[in-house]
Amino acid sequence: MNDLRSVNAHTSIGYIKQLDGLRAIAVFAVIYTHYLPEQYWLLGQYWGGFGVRLFFILSGFLITRILLKARNLAELNNQHKGLVLKRFYIRRLLRIFPLYYLFLLFYYLFDIASTRDNILGHGFFLSNVYFGLINDFQGAASHLWSLAVEEQFYLVWPWLVLLLPKKKVLISVIVFLILIAPFSRYFGYLLNFNEIAIGTSMPANLDALGMGALLAWLVSEKQQQFWARLKFSNLWILAGIALIVFVRLVSFRWEILTELNITTENAILLWLTASACKGFTGLTQKILEFPPMVYIGKISYGIYLFHLLPPLALEGRLRTFELPISDINLLVSCLLWVAITVTLAAISWHLVEKPINSQKKYFPYVDKG
To answer: Rounded to two decimals, what is the model's pTM?
Structure first.
């Protein structure tokens, strides 16, 4: 978020707040399905996947928007794009690495989720590859796959955004990325890869990341037409929600319908992100800009990293219990875990992340003329 401000991406504070509100929704969707047994999932939906894809769309949008803005500034100031690329990676390192490696060190010292057996894989952001090879998420380390996907995406994507012709080539590459994902998942099934290997690979998640990038390109290149057309999309979104509910209720397992469902969910998440960029009004605005929601979104990286620790530490993996657990005990346990997770994330934000993030001011994307 600070990166957006640094390149003057938008003049509306509400824009920043509403995207933070979406981050809060995304991280709570992940917590919801990781803390509650499957019988409590609404419509039998794995909402954690929904939350992760929202994170991917937000990341694809924010990173591409930042890079496009920085590219424009570099061109206006006749500065080399290599500088923008260098500064991008420095700023990413400051944002992601310190807390991630502190977290990984803690896992290594206590050998949580057999981390010592794959310390290099986790350390080099290859957790998704490792999980796919062993066909196992390894419990409390399972969520690291999505961070690996994002870091793998960042190795390539900034080069393309900064160096390709924006109007002639970049948009075609973005569309190509979006199309790669369903084909990747489909061929994974044909080749009998396990579901973990299919679902956690970087190519299989390029549709969500690419949709975010597409939104950034549209906002940058076709802003007026895009915002004008966005308001006419509500009917299609309602139809998409109806389709998702229908497929879930009848429990279709056919691959084509599953792919249609994923694409529809991604389209809805893209619409949510686009609408937040434009600025929701009314009740939705109040929800997304509600100060606790904004704060949760701001510290969501820490929440995501830490959220599997409280259940593990308190021996509360409820879905492994053989004895029935009352709803009230389940609710109290989940609320306790959420409170501990948010507290840990808040501490890490103020003691680790925020001070380190403040060092970004020494690495602007483009030097002042």
So the answer is: 0.89
